[in-house]
Amino acid sequence: MRGFLAAVSGLVAVVALAVALPAAWVAASVADEDGFVSLSRDVVTDGAVQDAASDLLTTRLEREAGLPAQLAETGRRLLERATDRVFDDPQLSGAWAQTLRRTHAALLDDPAAASGQVPVPLDLAPLARLAAERTDGLVDAPDRLVVELPGGPDARALRLVDESPGLALAAGLVAAVGALVALLVARRRGVALVWLGVGAAWSSPSSGGAPPDPRREIPRSTWESPPSVGISRRPGELSGYRWDSRASRPVPAPG
After folding, report:
1. DSSP alpha helices (H): ranges in the chain?
2. Among the listed residues 119, 82, 115, 137, the one whose alpha carbon sits nearest the alpha carbon of residue 238
3. What is the pTM of this model?
4. Distance from CA of residue 130 to its chain's centroid?
5. Tens digits of per-residue pLDDT, 222-252?
6. Rg (CA), the chain
7. Among the listed residues 119, 28, 45, 141, the one whose alpha carbon sits nearest the alpha carbon of residue 89
């Protein structure tokens, strides 16, 4: 009887640990704002992303400036130079972090109210401010410049992300109690400890392979677009891209 109870307790501990570890990763890297920023911070260093963002910022800031026709061409050249220089600015990292924090807040503000597939909103206003500072007062940056990336997480996934800290804690407690009971009632505690170690190694995320790299290269061609300059038919949506929930970054949409 003691052996059976030890085996069941050990199995419960291993299963609970298999739930706790991924939930803890999601809680630390996605549900947590700082973790989300850290996971996605290198996306903006990709050259294709920079080119698309620069074109989008130029178009939006040109619209904000409302330049007369005779100054439109000169003004656009000035805006293009300003937006290109944003990505060499030492403040870029901080501005992109603000964009990611706004995205995180918008996605997880009220996940219970979401339904269906939720587009990922990227508010590029912090980058627009860096560009506007280089236009010698030609244009003021908008308070919000939201680009919606289709293909984001569905509402159920958002709710699971929101619940992941509590789930990780609860599953971790169950795993700890199960392991303790298994060791206390086992006839041969050394053997029980070895099996618990094997189970812990099996349940570790590293046993299933490395997680996707959110910094993988994006082909430049996927950002190229017709005269809409990176804006799809739906205003504020970036053409050719969708949001990869596992990698927490924009990726090319399937052709």
Report:
1. 2-26, 33-40, 47-65, 69-86, 92-108, 125-132, 155-185, 189-203
2. 119
3. 0.66
4. 23
5. 333 333 333 333 334 444 555 565 555 566 5
6. 24
7. 45
Q: What is the DSSP string of 152-199?
A: --BHHHHHHHHHHHHHHHHHHHHHHHHHHHHHHH-SSHHHHHHHHHHH
Orientation angle between helical segments 2-26 and 155-185, nearest 10 degrees: 150
**Rounded Cα distance, 146 and 148, in Å:** 6
pLDDT digits (tens, 9 = 90+) for 150-159: 777 888 888 8
Can you give the residue ranges of every domain in the chain?
2-252
- How many other C-beta atoms are found inside a 10 Å radius of the C-beta of residue 116? 8
- What is the number of other CB atoms lying within 10 angstroms of the CB of residue 223? 24
User: What are the C-alpha distances in Å from 110 to residues 149, 176, 234?
Assistant: 19, 32, 24
Orientation of helix 33-40 relative to helix 92-108, angle to 10°: 130
